[in-house]
Design brief:
The chain has 649 residues and is an alpha+beta fold. The chain has four domains: 14-35 and 46-103; 126-253, Beta-Lactamase (2-Layer Sandwich); 273-405, 2-Layer Sandwich (Beta-Lactamase), CATH 3.30.450; 521-647, 2-Layer Sandwich (Heat Shock Protein 90), CATH 3.30.565. The chain has helices at 2-11, 13-35, 41-102, 107-122, 149-154, 163-171, 226-271, 275-290, 318-330, 340-346, 377-478, 483-511, 521-536, 553-574, 603-608, 614-625; strands spanning 126-133, 138-145, 157-159, 174-177, 198-206, 209-218, 294-301, 304-311, 350-357, 360-368, 540-546, 579-585, 589-596, 629-634, 640-647. Helix 3 packs antiparallel against helix 4, helix 4 runs antiparallel to helix 7 and helix 13 (521-536) packs parallel to helix 14 (553-574). The longest helix has 102 residues, at 377-478. The chain is elongated, with a radius of gyration of 54 Å.
């Protein structure tokens, strides 16, 4: 509170210098007026002079205040211009830095340009940039200035979670070190022996996360201002984005290269089904692309691991064979004895990769980089993918050889089967002729049955009805004159109608669906389908699923007739080789499917034709009468399905 009041007084100090005397004179004037209730002539000159003095003082104060304000305003504007010039220089420098580092996709070039520009902008005497490796959480020195060889070697690889670099990474911000030699956080660090007095550490931030750290050092003790800290943080942010972009570009280029190689090897493995020729082509292609010392493909033969193809050095060394045996035994890549960190950073001189086909190890691919050369982690990953492609090619070539051998055996079997099939064809032709004769006989019997029914109706029911009509006429004529005779005639009509009833009952009984009342739907369908197979000659099977339950007799009759009509259509129109009837007794409905593998049809066109496919429309009508749904699914050359769904009672 006191500090705020003091600042306010200091801000208005010039006004108080002028206003304080005026306030004092004003107070005296007011006191005089209050003390003297009347003013005599001798006091008039005093008040006039006092008022003039106050007026002149006020005008002088106003002029003084205006001059002070102008002086202050000019100084403030000059300070703002100077700050704007400095900020503009900073922005232009950042723009220049951003332009330069974005013009290159080479990571080392970007880091060296960024470090050089950052040191020039901040007038620091040395610096370094470390980048992180996600595989082992380590910082690797990628660019440096002002560090001797001993210090560079000591700072080449640092834990990402230790020291001031680790602190900057964890905070995702900056760490200032005003006194490097005495800072306890750097105890034991080679930086304390470099001669640098002050340092600044900041993380390299990017949209995908932190990618490293930047450190700048001065030979003289220096306190980094807020503007300098903001500038270094902005530079670090630009470098972080550039590093991430360069890494993404390099990753995309590496992926493109890998995809190209994989496609090429895949094409080579598929271009020849001769195993030796295919392997020879593959290893030659690998040599042309990677230029390593040797490539060897080992394959299992009779329980032993033998080199199937070798390219490069005169012959596989005993060490290469042992490495391949290790890869085959473990089913995992095998490396020479090495430290894991060294492998990640520097690569390996040799690798053996298992070749797997359908989860079975069939051999190994050995790659030797040669003297003073290593296989990079990217190459190891790529060769692992290539081993999969080569495995597929080997498996296909072996399958082809096996197929060719089996093909010869198959040709012999085909000749034998052809002779047998010819004999069977003749037998089938004979049976087909017999079945055709049987079908004609069935058709004749059906026609005879229809004629018999017509004769029964004509000779029996029709004659009886005509007789009843005559008797009714006679009864009407005799009703008034001869009541007794009319009664006799009516009795005769009754007898004739009873005979009509019996005749019709007999005809209906002959036409009734066989077995539904006594045995039920399933046995009746089984008998019908067995008869259908014999009469029509198309294989047909009845499939029951769920727990069967009884249905209303009318429903069972409708189901029977729909199945009968559908199978009749199969035999008459479908040109099918097989058919099936599926009945599923579900919790909510009964689902009946009549299926064939015939020539099919266009359902919509068939249903729209007025004079054809009356059977389809009759089946739909029957389904609607029992509260069900009937759907016909078919297409030309794709068979037909008639699907009937009936709600469970």
């Amino acid at each position: 509170m006191l500090a705020k009041a003091s600042a306010t007084i200091y801000k208005w100090r010039n006004v108080l210098r002028l206003a304080l005397p005026i306030i004092i004179l004003g107070v005296i004037l007011v006191w005089e007026i209050v003390e003297h209730t009347w003013i005599d002539a001798d006091d008039i000159w005093f008040f006039t002079a006092t008022f003039d003095i106050l007026l002149v003082g006020l005008l002088a104060g106003i002029v003084y205040l205006f001059a002070s304000w102008m002086e202050h305003e000019i100084a403030m504007r000059e300070a703002i211009r100077q700050e704007l010039r400095e900020r503009n220089q900073t922005v232009m420098a950042l723009y220049s830095l951003t332009t330069q580092i974005n013009q290159s996709r080479n990571l080392n070039t970007i880091l060296n340009i960024a470090l050089e520009q950052a040191l020039q902008l901040t007038r620091m005497d040395g610096g370094a940039i470390w980048l992180t490796e996600e595989q082992n959480h380590t910082l690797y020195l990628k660019a440096h200035r002002g560090l001797d060889e001993t210090v560079r070697h000591a700072l080449q690889r640092l834990p990402a979670d230790e020291g001031l670099n680790g602190l900057a990474l964890r905070q995702k911000g900056q760490v200032t070190v005003p006194n490097l030699p005495a800072d306890s956080r750097l105890e034991g660090s080679p930086l304390q022996k470099t001669g640098f007095q002050s340092g600044f550490f900041v993380s390299l931030s990017a949209p995908g996360g932190t990618v490293g750290t930047f450190a700048g050092f001065t030979l003289k003790a220096h306190t980094f201002t807020l503007a300098e800290q903001n500038l270094l943080t902005a530079i670090a942010a630009q470098v972080g984005v550039a590093v991430e972009s360069a890494r993404l570009y390099q990753s995309a280029q590496q992926r493109l290269f890998e995809i190209t190689i994989l496609q090429g090897i895949a094409w080579l493995t598929n271009s020849s089904l001769n195993l030796h020729a295919m392997l020879q082509t593959v290893v030659q292609a690998l040599e042309e692309v990677f230029r390593h010392e040797s490539y060897t493909i080992f394959l299992r033969e009779d329980g032993r691991l033998v080199p199937a193809i070798h390219h490069g050095s005169p012959s596989p060394s005993p060490g290469a064979t042992m490495l391949a045996e290790k890869a085959v035994a473990t089913g995992s890549p095998a490396f020479p004895p090495t430290q894991m960190d060294d492998f990640i950073q520097d690569g390996v001189p040799e690798i053996s990769l298992p070749l797997k086909a359908r989860q079975t190890v069939i051999g190994a691919l050995n790659v030797c980089a040669g003297a003073e050369k290593t296989l990079s982690p990217n190459e190891v990953r790529l060769f692992t993918a290539l081993a999969t492609q080569i495995s597929v090619g080997i498996h296909n070539a072996r399958l082809y050889a096996e197929v060719m051998h089996l093909n010869e055996e198959l040709q012999k079997m085909i000749a034998q089967r052809t002779r047998e099939l010819e004999a069977a064809r003749q037998e089938v032709t004979q049976k087909a002729h017999q079945l055709q004769q049987l079908l004609l006989e069935v058709t004749r019997i059906q026609d005879e049955e229809r004629n018999r029914i017509a004769f029964d109706m004509h000779d029996g029911v029709t004659q009886l009805v005509i007789g009843a009509m005559y008797e009714c006429q006679a009864a009407v004529a005799a009703l008034d004159a001869k009541p007794a005779m009319a009664h006799q005639k009516l009795q005769a009509v009754q007898d004739l109608l009873q005979q009509v009833k019996d005749e019709i009952h007999q005809i209906v009984h002959n036409l009734h669906t066989p077995g539904l009342e006594t045995t039920g739907l399933i046995p009746a369908l089984k008998r019908y389908i067995a008869s259908y197979r014999q009469l029509v000659g198309i294989p047909c099977q009845l499939h029951i699923s769920g727990e069967p339950f009884s249905l209303n007799p009318d429903v069972e009759t409708a189901i029977y007739r729909i199945v009968q009509e559908a199978l009749h259509n199969v035999g008459r129109h479908a040109d099918a080789t097989s058919s099936n009837v599926f009945i599923d007794f579900g919790l909510r409905n009964v689902r009946i499917v009549i299926q064939d593998d015939g020539k099919g049809m266009d359902v919509e066109t068939a249903l729209n034709l007025p004079d054809t496919h009356l059977g389809l429309r009759s089946m739909q009508q029957r389904a609607r009468q029992i509260g069900g749904e009937l759907e016909v699914q078919s297409a030309p050359r794709q068979g037909t399905q008639v699907i009937l769904k009936i709600p469970r009672p």
